[in-house]
Structures are given as C-alpha cells and as structure tokens.
Amino acid sequence: MTRQFDALFDEWSMTYDHTVKGSDIEYKEVFEGYDDILSEVAKKAKGYIFEFGAGTGNLTEKMIKMGKQVYGIEPSEGMRRIARKKLPGVTIVEGDFLEFPMPKQHPDTIVSTYAFHHLTDDEKTGAIQQFGKMLGEGGRIVFADTIFVSNEAKQDMIKEAESKQFNRLAADLKSEFYTTIPKMNQLFGEAGFDASFTQKNRFVWLAEAMKRRE
Question: CATH 3.40.50.150: does it fit domain 6-211?
C-alpha cells in the first residue's frame, strides 16, 4: 500500500478529532454526521471485527462500548498513540489494508471509515480479494468513505471546492484515490460479495458487502 500519507496523518493526529467535529470549514460537509455514521458502522459489525484505519480510535471506542471484539489496524504512529491512550488494553497494531500482522482468529466483519480512498484502484482490488479469502460465508464488509456516483460527479465536486476557494479540499480530491460506486460494486462482485450503498452526506457513502455462498 502506498504510504505517502503517513507523515500527513502523523501531523494531523493532534487535530484530527477537532476536524471531524466540524471545526474546519473546508471539511465540514465531508464529516457531516460523523458520529452517527460511526455509530451505524459499529452497530452493523458482528462477531470478531477487523478495523482498518483505526485512526484515533473513535469507531473502535464505539464498538468496544457495545461489547464487541475489535482488532485495530492503523499505519500512522501518531494516530496509534492517541488511540491507545484513549483505549488502554485494546489491540491496535501497525499495518494497513494490504500488510498487517494476522491474528490467529479470522474476522467475521471487516470495517473501515474515511480510509479506503488512500488505496489506488489496483490496491483496492487486492485488498477486497484478500478480504474475500479471509471472510467465510455470510462474512461482511462495512465501509464508510467518500465515494462518487461517477467520475463526472467527482469533477463537479472539485470545481465546486475551487469556486469556494476550498483549496485544501480541492487538492485532496485531486490527489487521493477516491473511486466510484460502479467501480466499488465491480470489485466487491469479483471477490464474491453482494454489495449495497447508502448515501450519508454529500461526500460519504456507507458500503455494505456480504460474502456469497460458494
């Protein structure tokens, strides 16, 4: 997995929790309904859970409070430090969607929020194929992330950000690997999943994928 964002997230770790609460005007719409979105993902996670991109532990904390077993995976040292401080005793290891220490127990659910867009389409393909091998029949993936209905919709959002002089958001949308619903649906289907998508705000969609019978 590309690690070009690690330094950025180490730097962002100290202010990340303020950003997701809407304090940054450029990203306010991206994180609209953040707490409710995390709560919905947490409720949908069943059994033994792998969480990729655990960040500062906000989703992790919700799942732990619900009495769920979580194996957290996070590439940023700064983010891991904050998450471990919030959640002493909870397992949060160094790793990413493609490379991570595999525990003895396989997951029943794989979750992630605001992170899958850091992978190129080729990396997304590899990750979802790997998840398909790890999850048994009825296993599920629950992701919440910025996804677009089409590439045209993505370009429209970039133009809108530029017109508002939201230069950091526009640069973010141009440089990271935000994908489309048709592409995600294709990748899930090829890996043996049936997927559905629900829009949560102007940027974020909830993707749910269930492993089909062999």
Answer: yes
